[in-house]
Specification:
It comes from Nonomuraea typhae. This is BtrH N-terminal domain-containing protein. InterPro entries: BtrH_N, DUF4872. The protein is of the alpha+beta class. It folds into 2 domains: about 1-30 and about 80-175, Cathepsin B, Chain A, CATH 3.90.70; about 185-325, Four Helix Bundle (Hemerythrin (Met), subunit A) (Up-down Bundle), CATH 1.20.120. It contains 11 helices and 9 strands. The protein has helices spanning about 15-25, 35-40, 65-75, 85-100, 155-160, 190-200, 210-220, 230-240, 250-265, 270-295, 300-325; strands at about 1-5, 45-50, 55-60, 80, 105-110, 125-130, 135-140, 150, 170-175. Strands 1, 4, 5, 6, 7, 8 and 9 form a 7-stranded antiparallel sheet that branches. Strand 7 and strand 8 form a beta hairpin. Helix 9 runs antiparallel to helix 10 (about 270-295) and helix 10 packs antiparallel against helix 11 (about 300-325). It is globular, with a radius of gyration of 20 Å. The mean pLDDT is about 95.
């Protein structure tokens, strides 16, 4: 058995920030999950629907691995990432880091992981690997999935090799702090501005605040999009609130990030943005509850109510980001 020493194998709410926390704590940098999410400019929105999809998807964050790239660039970290189509080489890449005494991040499809009780394909899932033996790999996943867990090396290979939306080619990565680490406190306002600029300047209408507005137009018709409302709508609501988002489609995480920033920076615009994202988090939870009720009852009135709230959320988040970009 090979195990990295001095690992703090604790899970948090979201998969990518959970893995980042494991890697950075081992490097000596211990930041809260909301701080990692915010410094990585992780908040976004996408209304994703295409001909090949059985049902639309509401996403609340940037693309998988973009958060890691953003965080590394913001803090001056050395990000070393490897990809391969060879399962043998993929294992060697991951095991080499552990052999060298370092945890390694892995992007994979969680469908194949043996400890997952809900078997859904999602190719943007991220875990930290901190050990292995002849049969199993030792991982850190979200608290919801068990925190410190294990899965067979065979199942891990399948998860890493899976192809489909949001997958990577058996991506593994490590993070290294520079000899003189940047003061992360100095990067708070630049990270907030970066996130606000991207949110407000989204290039297509199903991203950012315009994407939320589009969702407000489309969600009321969701009962006509599905032959199984109970399954599809309740699954959509579950993903928004409990699918590793930290609640409220990542808005609770961003609210808490802004709250931590407001304790360090005396700025009324920042405090106002924090209050507005507190309001948004409550409303996003209301939206997911209404979608779940529509799936349970088949009553379209719940989706109409959700649409009204989504239009309000588009206005609230646009206004909040306009304030935050001016910090």
């Amino acid at each position: 058995m090979t195990i990295v020493k001095d690992i703090q194998a604790r899970g948090t709410e979201h998969c990518e920030t959970t893995a980042l926390g494991v890697l950075l704590r081992h490097e000596g940098l211990d930041l809260s999950e909301p701080m990692l999410f915010g410094l990585g400019a992780g908040l976004s929105f996408v209304y994703w629907d295409s001909k090949g999809m059985p049902f639309p998807f509401l996403g609340g964050r940037v693309k998988p691995f973009d958060l890691t790239r953003n965080l590394a660039a913001r803090l001056g970290l050395t990000l070393t990432a490897e990809e391969t189509t060879s399962q043998r080489k993929a294992w060697q890449n991951a095991a080499a880091a552990v052999d060298a005494g370092r945890p390694v991040g892995l992007q994979l499809d969680c469908y194949h992981l043996e400890y997952f009780t809900s078997k859904v394909h999602f190719g943007g899932h991220v875990v930290a690997m901190y050990g292995y033996d002849e049969n199993d790999a030792y991982l850190v996943d979200t608290d919801q999935q068990g925190g410190a867990v294990r899965t067979s090396r065979a199942s891990l290979a399948l998860a890493r090799a899976e192809r489909g939306p949001m997958t990577a080619r058996s991506r593994s990565f490590t993070l290294t702090l520079p000899p003189r680490p940047l003061a992360w406190q100095d990067q708070l306002i630049p990270a907030i501005r970066e996130c606000a600029d991207a949110f407000l300047a989204a290039p297509i209408a199903n991203l950012g605040h315009r994407g939320i507005e589009k969702a407000g137009n489309q969600v009321p018709a969701w009962l006509r999009r599905t032959a199984d409302p109970r399954e599809d709508l309740q699954q959509a609501a579950l993903v928004m609130e409990r699918g590793g988002t930290g609640g409220a489609l990542f808005r609770a995480l961003y609210r808490d990030f802004l709250g931590e920033c407001a304790q360090l920076i005396d700025d009324e615009g920042l405090r106002a943005g924090h209050r507005m994202y507190g309001e948004a988090a409550v409303l996003w939870t209301d939206v997911s509850s209404l979608i779940a009720k529509a799936g349970e009852t088949g009553d379209a009135d719940y989706l109409e109510q959700a649409g009204v709230i989504l239009h309000a959320l588009s206005r609230i988040e646009e206004a909040a980001m306009q304030l935050l970009r001016q910090l």
